[in-house]
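Issue 218. Parser rejects a valid record. Input:
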Amino acid sequence: MQSIEWVFLDLGGVLYSLDYDGVLGRFCRRCSKTPAELEEVLHDEELFRGYESGLISSEEFFQRVVQCLNCDITFDEFTAIWNSLLVPRKPMFRLAYRLKRQVGLLILSNTNEINAAVIDPAIRGLSDVVVYSHLVGCLKPERQIYEKALELSGTLPERALFVDDRVENIDGARALGINTHHFQDKKTLLRAFRGYGL
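Output the parser choked on:
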């Protein structure tokens, strides 16, 4: 008998590949900074976490990044480069649509307003419920974001399966009693699904 009622799916690293090198290259062509300098700005923990937890607006994030990079670029140009990070994994999308016929499907992602504007149309019809970090004000692996996913899905931890590519996020969900799968590839994920009767 199937015990899993809901699958909570991550976006980046699961449904999407993340083209960090491409983003750095595109910014390098617009700014007089080296890739290492760009990385230092774009991976600034306080700035990035503030944006992905909704504490910083898209406009403020844009202004702070271009100021640090000393980059002459419009917001629209910045948005296009920022969104080029996301490369859909079509086989994983097809699998997710098949999965949706069997269980509730919830997207659980650390993301931001700019990326979400591209993601939303792509997942329309795929997910019953979406939990974005920038909208709920907390990030994986914080306990609150998993509690929000459980609340919105209306399921119990033992009836949910969380799929993510980052170990720390898996650990955060497991601490609440949620079943987990550390995503590495589609083949091992399918094997895990079969183990849960999916």
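Fixed in the parser; the record now loads. Residues 20-83 form a domain with the DNA polymerase; domain 1 fold (CATH 1.10.150.240).
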